[in-house]
Amino acid sequence: MSHALHAEWTKLRTLAATGWLLLGTVALTVALSTVVTLAINYTSGGPSQDITKLSLAGIYIGQAIVAILAVLSISGEYSTGMIRVTLTAIPRRASMLAAKAATLTALVAVAAALGVLGSVLAGRLILPAHGFTAAHGYPVLSLAHDLTLRAAGGSVLYLALIALLSLGVATAVRDAAVAIGIVLGLLYLFPILATLATDPSLRRHLQQIAPMTAGLAIQDTTHLQHLPIAPWAGLGVLAAWAATSLSAGGLVLRLRDA
Amino acid sequence: MTATTTPYRSDIPVGRDGLVQLLGAEWTKFRTVRGWVITAITSALLIVLFAYLGTFRHQNSVCAGPTGPGVSCQGAAAQPRVPVGPGGEAVTDSYYFVHRTLQGNGSITAYAGSLGGRIQTGNGNAVSTTDVIGAPGPVQPWAKAGLILTASTRPGSAYGAVMLTGAHGVRMQYDYTHDTAGSHAAAPTSPRWLRLTRSGTTLTGSESADGVHWTQIGAAHLASLPVSVQAGLFVTSPQTAPAPQFASGSAGSGGSATGLTATFDHLSLQGQWQGGAWKSKDVGADSEMPTLSSVGYHLAGGAFTLTGSGDIAPAVGLPAAFTDQPSLTGVFVGLIVLIVLGAMFITAEYRRGLILTTLTASPRRGRMLAAKTIIIAAVTFLAGAAAAAVAIPLGAHLLRANGNYVYPTSTLTELRVILGTGALLALTAVLALAVGTALRRSASAVTAVIMLIVLPYILAIASALPTEASNWLLRITPAAAFAVQQTLPQYHQVNYVYTPSAGFYPLAPGLGLAVLLAYTLAALLIARHLLRTRDA
């Protein structure tokens, strides 16, 4: 297994795209979070804002880059034929997939942590200037605060789970374009369907099973009793999606010729 | 002894990389990849299928009242009765009216003022439209008191009116959608002389500060006005703007009912007015909009005091009422499928090495890209337009079958939405083709296009961003093109939460589509440049 890990690490490390995509994850996450925090202003008497969640809005875009990285890590092998070399070297296909998942998760977690820290820092610096001060009932964002820590740490876990979900889908369908279409469809379509659904209970159910909406419940720090799903339960839903997709990918990998 | 051999001459005609031949080549490539044809058909089927999901709804919640859920509310009989104005749009026509019959030409003049507001007490969500008295409250910005001349007292009739408003000065309005501003009074409740004159089918509204010097506000030509019309004094006051909430087309019913009291004196009439006594009527008392029940009038010393509740305006934000948007939920699903198709139409060639053959056969690279663009645009436009043409009536039927109201739209608007949906999908697929040509990698191309068009839409409608930020996203990103699906216009004379999540876009339909077109053209130009300057 350690050989498999080493092999996967070498492959992932030596691809030029990996560095760029990881950098893109960090940069785009921080950039979108910054733009969103710049766009919001405190209005007295207005609805109370969840500034922690808004400061972490960059995850919406960061997850797409994570998905590309995860999809390419296996689809790239199929398109170049590298997969045959890989499977000759590591005939235990489950080990290969597990090693891929482990190296990918580690890399994504590092990039995600940097992106999340950058976003929280941006929120901490920008929000007080936009009227979100302690006097208005918005303490400065700080990871020492339990709920903020849960939101920030949960966002890192969220991105890691998105990588696993994408890896599973890409292993099952092989083609990069189709895999990324399926992953981004799963992530982005559910929230749109939930918003457009005219039936309130259907809307709530959609929000409860959607990988993105449920998973991002971990970022909520206010109105917790009105959430369609509790924060950790929501992350659990995403974990279930990731586990299902990895199992399906693993099964297809085992049953089909490469 | 040497045999003479004729050199080989291909019988393919010269000029084989003309656009027509290239179109044929690209069409053959598309047609013969079974997965692509299936994908295009699937995208259309998904759009239709998701019309079911978008419009799925237990019955109209208004029905789940004392009558018991699901018993009396099935079928078209349970539809809310919403009047339709002369222009074919759904209207609210509910006001207190003190009137006489005017035969032929004539005019009515009055001195109107002393506006006082009333507002419904208690929770705005639990409106029982009949038992609401209301307590003194602020005058609503679009509360109206003035003179009206209408074809009949049936809601939805053609009319013209001059009025004082709560916060928008003196206005002349006619046929629900038309609104002309007069002078803006210093204080909202400062009195004003108003005059409404009928001459044939033309109505003229005038105002005056002193009753001597008159200024014309505007004129209306009401073609269908009968000879005998009802004219007199009216007062009405619309519901408060509801709190914003996430839902499409249905957002925010649940404002509070309000009322307005106004005084009119120095009433003078010219022309043939029939009958000596003034009649009164609470027009449109069974309106779907919440209204107060404490309406009426009294006459003392030549001064009329009227209290009314409701609105004379286009209907916006009716409870359990929907536009075409829920029926088009599947467009987003179809969009993602077609983005994948558009990107693969070129990236598959790079992956398989077919691009080398393609460029050998047609060395003019720009023309090859043009041929691909035309083929993918035609296929996706047809798939999108055909699917929308089925999904819209299907969704409307499903909503009506469950006792919901669907806003009426003109055939022209329906056609715009259907063709616009086709254009939206075609432009997005071409954008994916262009980005795919530039990036050559399908995963990056698909992600880039989805991030450009779907992500801004999600951030605008389904995140906690403030409305102003959402509106900017829907102005400057390709997601602006979704404006082509909006069927209910935004009316400045109706106070409502016109947010993207309620289905109101900041740009006009054509302009929104033009934003996407600009992105697509820019991407095509970049793709053409890269294609010509890079080795394949």
Write a structural description.
The complex is a heterodimer of chains A (258) and B (536). Chain A is mainly α. In chain A, 76% of the residues lie in helices and 0% in strands. Chain A has one domain (2-255). Chain A has helices spanning 2-14, 16-39, 51-55, 59-80, 82-89, 93-126, 146-173, 176-196, 200-209, 211-215, 231-255. Chain A starts with a helix and ends with a helix. Chain B has two domains: 19-57 and 322-533; 91-318, Jelly Rolls (Sandwich). Chain B is an alpha+beta fold and 536 residues long. In chain B, strands 2, 3, 4, 5, 6, 7, 8, 9, 10, 11, 12, 13 and 14 form a 13-stranded antiparallel beta sheet that branches. Chain B has a two-stranded antiparallel ribbon with strand order 1-15. Chain B has a two-stranded parallel sheet with strand order 16-17. The interface between A and B is large, with 42 and 52 residues.
Helix content of chain A: over 70%
Instruction: Calculate Rg of chain A over CA atoms.
Output: 19 Å
| Helix/strand structural class of chain B | alpha+beta
Low-confidence stretches of chain A: none
Weakly predicted, low-confidence segments of chain B:
61-77, 123-131, 245-253
- Percent range for β-strand residues of chain A: under 5%
Mean pLDDT of chain B: 85
SSE run of chain A: HHHHHHHHHHH
* Overall number of structural domains of chain B: 2
Count all strands of chain B and give the number: 17
Number of helices of chain B: 9
Described by the principal axes of the CA atoms, the overall outline of chain A is globular
Strand segment count of chain A: 0
Reported for the largest beta sheet of chain B, the result is:
13 strands, antiparallel
- β-strand amount of chain B: 15-25%
> DSSP helix count of chain A?
11
- Helicity range of chain B: 25-40%
Structural class of chain A: mainly alpha
Distance between the termini of chain A: 20 Å
